[in-house]
Structure to design on (558 residues):
């Protein structure tokens, strides 16, 4: 069959006048209704909502664990293939003459801050400490809980969840969006990434459904991140003396504390979103990167320096060697150990895979937006390898210092006993010996946490509006930015108040499942497009969109 030019026009109907001018009414209103009903249901019928969500969560974790494990493994493989595939590696996310809009420092700062930055302040300490006490190697009798022979295992499993798998899922989403938006001239929205599979039909109901699923997954995925961050933010504010009313007698954030924190964070993030990517988000990302480097430098110099070096380099080696087995292993069986392993995998690995999938439309579209002009190979190396290593560095010295303090008895169980969000405060307090220096460090961590939360939230609001506006990257109407800022805050508040962080986790896992199928199709679509574009170039057929808006469109067939 003769090769045809790729699809280079994908019209999406948007409102010409009125409140929704420039927005796809089908996508925007449907997504608002779904999110609105979730908030109303959670507030009006908290017990029923909690019960139903928990039941659906259990069903998904039981019946789709294998799906999530193999899907995430496939994303890692696809990224490796794209990086080494000569045809793919040299292609730009844009025209051959396009140059990157942002320098490397700002590019990496925005990429890291919006992607996983918030989680570092919670899980870089909490997760290695947890896996130091229990992980699949301990369950199988291959290592001893809370002993020296389990240190590298703690890092191997922590690196699994925050390393190449997580960032490969983001890279797949970002590559799919950037490739078709900036090379083909299609709208910068999720449906465009499926054009090699569905063609012009994506202008209609199929495309609307894809974008709706992406918006809902984005809101729930970012809500998950904000939920962890809000709890830690409240804990931090209480520690620096804002007020005892922020916490309950059980040491958890109070309802008033949660609402207070969300108003601050979402108010700041909405103002930042109104200023756009090139201003508010860029500067916030640079600020939190500088503060992150300061905090990390403090831990490297004054924390467990040599312990961290070993955790980083030897831990990375253990992780890379064990990666093929870890990403393909499905635990299950009838005996108690197999049951414990399956439970651990569902609570940790499968949960994380669902979280990263739910986060992928947001991070992927954002990565595409800031990566125009970069080659696919440069994008993969920048979006998978570099942020993964940064995560490993954080886990090595933040978590390593915590493990070392507990292992040597200096912490006396204080880090183990602290809440997940409070572990970093407990650790720095031990290192600095209390007093004014500990207070100042807590203030720095709270400020850093807030900048990360605001960066994630305002980026999410802009991304949701871009999807709703059929890929329009230009300024969005202020009421719509404000609406999604309020909606995101309401989702976090409602779910935290009815069931704590567990309720947000449950809603996120449910929302991620439909989008995981979309992501698989995105990977297939991307490989198909690159393969055919290589053949088209050899045949002298153009594979990039004309620079003029009124240039003729290609054939709707891929």
């Amino acid at each position: 069959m003769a090769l045809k030019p790729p699809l280079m026009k994908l019209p999406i109907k948007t409102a010409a006048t009125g409140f929704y001018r420039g927005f796809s009414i089908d996508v925007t209103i449907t997504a608002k209704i779904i999110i609105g009903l979730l908030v109303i249901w959670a507030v009006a019928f908290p017990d029923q909502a909690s019960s139903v969500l928990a039941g659906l969560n259990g069903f998904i974790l039981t019946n789709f664990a294998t799906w999530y494990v193999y899907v995430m493994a496939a994303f890692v493989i696809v990224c490796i293939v794209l990086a080494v595939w000569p045809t793919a590696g040299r292609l730009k996310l844009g025209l051959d003459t396009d140059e990157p809009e942002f320098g490397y420092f700002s590019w990496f700062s925005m990429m890291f801050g919006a992607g996983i930055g918030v989680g570092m302040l919670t899980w870089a300490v909490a997760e290695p400490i947890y896996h130091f006490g229990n992980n699949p190697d301990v369950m199988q009798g291959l290592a001893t809980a809370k002993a020296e022979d389990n240190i590298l295992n703690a890092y191997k499993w922590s690196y699994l969840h925050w390393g190449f798998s997580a960032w490969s899922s983001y890279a797949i989403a970002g590559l799919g969006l950037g490739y078709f938006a900036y090379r083909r001239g299609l709208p910068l929205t999720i449906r465009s990434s499926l054009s090699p599979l569905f063609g012009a039909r994506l202008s209609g109901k199929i495309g609307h459904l894809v974008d709706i699923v992406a918006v809902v997954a984005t809101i729930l995925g970012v809500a998950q991140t904000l939920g962890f961050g809000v709890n830690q933010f409240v804990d931090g504010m209480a520690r620096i003396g804002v007020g005892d009313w922020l916490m309950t007698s059980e040491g958890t954030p109070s309802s008033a504390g949660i609402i207070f924190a969300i108003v601050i964070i979402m108010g700041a993030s909405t103002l930042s979103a109104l200023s756009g990517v090139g201003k508010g988000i860029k500067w916030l990302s640079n600020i939190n990167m500088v503060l992150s480097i300061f905090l990390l430098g403090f831990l490297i110099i004054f924390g467990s320096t040599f312990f961290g070096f070993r955790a980083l380099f030897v831990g990375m080696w253990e992780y890379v060697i064990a990666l093929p087995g870890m990403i393909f292993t499905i635990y299950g069986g009838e005996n108690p150990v197999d049951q414990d392993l399956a439970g651990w995998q569902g609570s940790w690995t499968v949960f994380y895979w669902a979280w990263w999938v739910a986060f992928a439309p947001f991070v992927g579209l954002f990565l595409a937006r800031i990566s125009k002009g970069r080659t696919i190979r440069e994008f993969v190396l920048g979006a998978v390898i570099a942020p993964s290593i940064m995560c490993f560095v954080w886990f090595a010295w933040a978590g390593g210092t915590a493990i070392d303090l507990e292992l040597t008895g200096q912490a006396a169980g204080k880090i183990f006993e602290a809440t997940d969000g409070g572990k970093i405060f407990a650790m720095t307090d031990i290192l600095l010996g209390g007093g004014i220096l500990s207070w100042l460090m807590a203030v720095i961590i709270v400020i850093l946490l807030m900048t990360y939360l605001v960066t994630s939230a305002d980026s999410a609001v802009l991304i949701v509006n871009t999807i709703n506006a059929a890929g329009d990257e230009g300024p969005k109407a202020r009421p719509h930015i404000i609406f999604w800022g309020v909606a995101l805050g309401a989702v976090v508040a409602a779910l935290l108040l009815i069931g704590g962080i567990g309720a947000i986790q449950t809603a996120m896992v449910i929302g991620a499942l439909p989008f995981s199928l979309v992501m698989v199709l995105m990977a297939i679509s991307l490989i198909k497009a690159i393969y055919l574009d290589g053949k088209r170039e050899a045949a002298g057929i153009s594979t990039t969109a004309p620079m003029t808006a009124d240039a003729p469109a290609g054939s709707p067939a891929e």
Observations:
- The chain has 20 helices and no strands.
- Confidence is low (pLDDT under 50) at residues 548-558.
- Residues 478-538 form the longest helix (61 residues).
- The CA atoms of residues 389 and 477 lie 38 Å apart.
